[in-house]
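REVIEWER CHECKLIST
Item 1: Sequence provided? yes
Item 2: Single chain? yes
Item 3: Sequence as submitted:
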Amino acid sequence: MYSGRGERGLRRRIIAGNWKMNKTVDEAVTLIADLKGLVKDATDVEIVVSPPFTALGAVREALRGSNIELAAQNMHWENEGAFTGEVSPRMLRNLGCMYVILGHSERRTYFGETDEGVNKKVKSALLNGLLPIICVGETLKEREEGKTEEVVTRQTKAALDGIKTNEAERIVIAYEPVWAIGTGRTASADEANRVIRIIRSTVAEVFNSRIADEVRIQYGGSVKPGNARELFGQSDIDGALVGGASLNASDFAAIVKA
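Item 4: Structure as written out by the authors:
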């Protein structure tokens, strides 16, 4: 069983900005130009940006020589084929992506993504050398019905099904309560930490306590400069998956510095 130690020393914090369907190519390059100077001295945290597909190539070039990594917001699980409108993991690797966000609640809610589909994507990402940021989280209805633990446990187990222990170390998990995304509402630091400990215990159940202590688990859901420090002060929160605040260079930099 998981010891519950939450050994932060094993885990480097990671702050990832999910730009969603925002920023043209020119706007994306401008944002990176503004951001690079603000976070250039942040050496104790991993910084990741996730622009829309159209801007990945330009952002890759803009990031050269910086301490910021590149992520994609989604992908298909096949490397190629007749999947109109989709983007493959091989394409993302070729564009210089290190990370890919998978299973975001907006993908699950608006585009019908399932636990099974997320699992296929996780396996394919790992096979192709991408590091998956796996999103899990409950809706407001599920929260009010007391199903938070049930939902995040199910989603975590499903996403990790069939993943080898030596692959698990490369995974990042983001706890994103659906009711807090883009609403301005944020789980309290204590509540976010409690749920993340449940996720970490689930990881220990699937793999072992060593993996559970090493896997980084972020919090996402209306993270802002004003609440970041309190969230990051918790024992099991290893960073944030930031939405709206990542579209402003000074706000995102303030979260990184928190």
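Item 5: Key structural point noted by reviewer: The first strand starts at residue 13 and ends at 18.
Item 6: Recommendation: ____
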